[in-house]
Design brief:
alpha+beta; Herpes Virus-1; Transferase(Phosphotransferase), domain 1; five-stranded antiparallel beta sheet; 18 helices; 24% helix; 29% strand
Length: 832
């Protein structure tokens, strides 16, 4: 500068200062001052007060922090903290010179960010998914044994490495479990899109009615509350038969094994002990407001301490057998065979027959007293033996046939005659010293459920057979008897009866064929096509070697290939409109840059970079051609990325470096970033940060402002070479050669996922959908659902199988573009 040159600084006058609002901290919204809210300048240029910088959450990466104003990741001095950052002297000077001119600022309410509206419809609501995802056991938890009958199977636990919920704590490796079938999904073998394990399980649940879901949740939660109820461990989907099962622990010993048959005489002390255990089990069932109304000895098991518990899976099996016989209008002999195994209460039988369309009128409702009928029948079977079972079989058979014939009015007289016979049999078995026991057991068989005794009354009577009341220290421990209309009968609910209705997911035309929710209908979209099983595929052929990259912009799809060319395809009709030629080596990467003149930049493994102008008509030659310096380590360009706002594009090279090229300065090399120990094969740009992935297994973060290093990821737990990166708002995804995917959400790492069985060559994010593909020739679709703070749920929705290795992915306006090693590009979209 010569002595005649002058520099003029524009200083605001007092009137301008008075019109300004006082500068404030973007975090606490308090005006800056020299004492409590001293402004400190971050690398991005924004100022934040000292106090807020100290109290900000601990940075996830070493020596970095996210600016509260622009969310950009910037360098931060550790451990000195904000005191090592420069004060904003100019800001303090303005504040001090006109502190009285600024109006006092009040905290401004933060405007909520407008939520991103997905153009891909949700298969289920986030609330529904959050409610049920933790109840679904992992795919490899259970090994299925031979099926016992049409509704229940047995299996064993083979894998407990990832317990998905607290119910899993009751299981042990190699423990036997019983599985009750809830519903099934029948897919189409011709579908291009194959839904994943969790997606199928969730969809079976999603198709069930509220009644069924309520009962399933009631059983699962009851298992957590009462130890006398055999624990339901969760839900498990069997890929072999496409059924969703409820998994319950299976104990080795059942009550049938202890008390073999009813014709064996039982001593009174043994009878009393069994009776007390049964009463305690039924009482705990009522504590969780569950009623059965039809049980057999097979429904009860015995644990290692001799305590009796109830197996709800077996209860549903017994109820299903009864239901099946009545649905088929079984003959008298068939019903007799059923009653030999169970003792359904009269009111339950009446409800079963009523559900078959027989018009019946009765004031008897199924409630807590219905379980007293079954309990009384089991106890009388022990005391009286086979004669009781035979008489009861005849009564219930005749009772059921009268119901089917519409003669319900005769049933009460039939019951009175049967009860007289049972009373006589009981008198012949017990002497006068057991008069109270006889009256109580006969009362259990009352026709009116409301006149039956409480469970606690039976329990006290059983205990008195063992301990004299005057020596019983627990005589004052009164249990509140269960009574009222708040109970739920499992055998009358939708869980059992919907097995013969439409709750099964058996729609061959597609999983979402019958949905009427308008929020799930979006025109011409990939996922909509998936849901309707109308997914179409278009093959783009034009390359002569492996596809190496895909980019979209300006209304065109650009594809690079090892055949040294870049093809340009029209997105309107998917026709090939032009081919860029000129590379002398394999084209390894390309990127589209939105600028005044749109650009396509391509790089090859010989180190040449071609800049192509995207305007019609297309030119045959690039308007700019660059070369990297070569040395003995050199193996060409492996990755490209661009920041259109700053006018810089980046190359990842075989010489382990990342280079920045200025598009505003005749495409000159402006910076070289070193740090990686091997080839830089993937790059991504997002929110002021450049991410570089390398064969050395690490990801390095660089500031876009000054290209300074910010952090290194992957050094502490390497997963092999990083082959692909994608960054979207607060999410970073890295794909590795060992088939694992690592995700960072808001800078917090999630548990790595083994999504593929081998190398993943490409990943892509669009909204909440994550696509990945690689060596196993399959594109996996996962859904990313944000929770509170840094929580992110990752759910595998399904996959699209291909014929060749997946080498490149892109998603645009409802269409998925997949580049393959066999020279083809497949375009998946919704069909007509």
């Amino acid at each position: 500068m010569c002595k005649h040159d002058f520099v003029y600084f524009l200083v605001p006058d007092r009137n301008t200062i008075e019109a300004m609002e006082a500068p404030e901290c973007p975090v606490c919204l308090q005006s800056f001052d020299h004492k409590s809210t001293i402004p400190r300048v971050l690398a991005c240029g924004h100022s934040v007060c000292e106090t807020c910088l100290i109290n900000l959450p601990k940075p996830p990466f070493p020596r970095t922090i996210r600016c509260p104003a622009c969310t950009q990741l910037v360098t931060y001095p550790h451990p000195q903290g904000p005191f090592a950052l420069p004060k904003n002297i100019d800001l303090l000077r303005i504040i001090s010179s006109s502190s009285s001119s600024f109006p006092k600022s009040n905290p401004k309410p933060k405007t909520p960010n407008s939520s991103f509206q997905d153009f891909i419809p949700n298969l289920w609501s986030h609330e529904f998914f959050s409610n049920w995802k933790d109840w679904v056991l992992s795919q490899d938890t259970v090994l299925l044994d031979t099926s016992v009958d049409g509704s229940v199977s047995h299996g064993k636990v083979v894998n407990l490495k990832v317990p998905t919920n607290c119910l899993m704590k009751c299981l042990k490796r190699n423990q036997k479990v019983s599985l009750f079938k809830l519903g099934f999904y029948r897919g189409n073998d011709e579908d291009r899109f194959r839904f994943g394990y969790l997606a199928k399980a969730m969809w079976v649940l999603c198709k069930m009615g509220d009644g069924v879901l309520g009962e399933i949740e009631l059983i699962l939660r009851a298992s957590l509350m009462e130890y006398r109820i055999c624990s339901a461990c969760g839900l498990w989907y069997n890929e072999d038969d496409d059924n969703l099962y409820m998994v319950c622990e299976k104990r080795e010993t059942s009550l049938l094994d202890v008390v073999v048959v009813y014709d064996v005489e039982v001593g009174m002390s043994s009878f009393a002990m069994i009776g007390m255990e049964l009463c305690e089990t039924v009482s705990q069932l009522h504590d969780v407001e569950l009623v059965i109304g039809c049980t057999s000895l097979s429904c009860f098991g015995v644990d290692e301490f001799g305590h009796v518990f109830i197996d709800l899976n077996e209860v549903m099996v017994v109820g299903g057998r009864l239901q099946k016989l009545l649905i088929e209008f079984a003959q008298n002999d068939d019903i007799k065979r059923l009653v030999m195994d169970a003792f359904p209460s009269p009111e339950l039988l009446m409800q079963f027959v009523h559900k078959q369309g027989v018009d019946l009128e009765s004031t008897c409702v199924v409630g807590y007293g219905s379980d007293l009928w079954s309990l009384g029948c089991i106890l009388l079977g022990f005391l009286v033996g086979k004669s009781f079972v035979e008489e009861t079989t005849d009564f219930l058979s005749s009772y059921t046939l009268k119901l089917f014939n519409g003669n319900a009015c005769d049933c009460e007289g039939l019951h009175a005659a049967w009860l007289d016979k049972i009373s006589g049999l009981l008198d012949s078995r017990l002497d006068s010293g057991y008069e109270s026991l006889k009256k109580l057991l006969c009362k259990c068989l009352s026709y009116d459920p409301g006149s039956r005794p409480f469970v606690s009354d039976i329990w006290k009577c059983m205990r008195e057979l063992i301990i004299s009341p005057k020596f019983d220290v627990t005589v004052s421990m009164e249990r509140k008897p269960a009574r009222g209309s708040t109970c739920h009968c499992l055998l009358l609910g939708d869980l059992l009866w919907s097995q013969y209705k439409t709750n099964k997911v058996d729609d061959k035309k597609g999983m979402m064929n019958n949905l009427t929710d308008e929020t799930l209908v979006v025109g011409n979209d990939l996922i909509e096509g998936v849901c309707k099983n109308s997914l179409t595929c278009t093959d783009l052929k034009g390359h002569l070697d492996c596809i190496s990259g895909l980019a979209i912009g300006g209304g065109f799809l650009f594809s690079s290939s090892f055949d040294k060319t870049i093809n340009v395809w029209s997105l309107q009709d998917l026709n090939l409109v032009h081919t860029f030629k000129g590379h002398e080596h394999k084209v390894m990467a390309l990127v589209f840059v939105e600028s005044e003149i749109p650009l396509c930049i391509s790089g090859d493994n010989g180190g040449e970079i071609f800049i192509w102008g995207i305007k019609l008509p297309f030119e045959e030659k690039p308007f700019k051609r660059l070369n990297e310096e070569k040395d003995w380590r050199y193996s060409g360009i492996h990755a490209l990325a661009a920041d259109s706002r700053s006018g810089i594009f980046y190359t990842g090279s075989g010489d382990k470096s990342v280079k920045a090229w200025s598009m505003h300065d005749d495409y000159s090399l402006s910076c070289t970033m070193n740090g990686h120990k091997s080839v830089v094969c993937t790059l991504a740009v997002s929110d002021g940060v450049l991410y570089s992935g390398s064969w050395d297994g690490t990801i390095r973060l660089w500031s876009l402002n000054d290209h300074s290093p910010l952090a290194v990821l992957g050094e502490e737990a390497p997963c092999g070479s990083v082959l692909s990166l994608v960054a979207h708002t607060n999410t970073l995804v890295a794909a590795h050669e060992n088939g694992r995917i690592k995700i960072w959400n808001k800078d917090v790492p999630l548990t790595p996922m083994s999504t593929h069985s081998s190398s993943i060559f490409s990943v892509y994010i669009e909204g909440q959908w994550l696509f990945s593909g690689g060596w196993n020739k399959t594109v996996v679709v996962q859904k990313l659902t944000s929770g509170d703070e840094s929580q992110l749920d990752v759910t595998e929705i399904g996959s699209v199988a291909g014929d060749s290795v997946v080498t490149a992915l892109h998603y645009w306006q409802g269409r998925l573009f997949v580049g393959h090693a066999d020279r083809t590009i497949k375009v998946y979209s919704a069909g007509g």
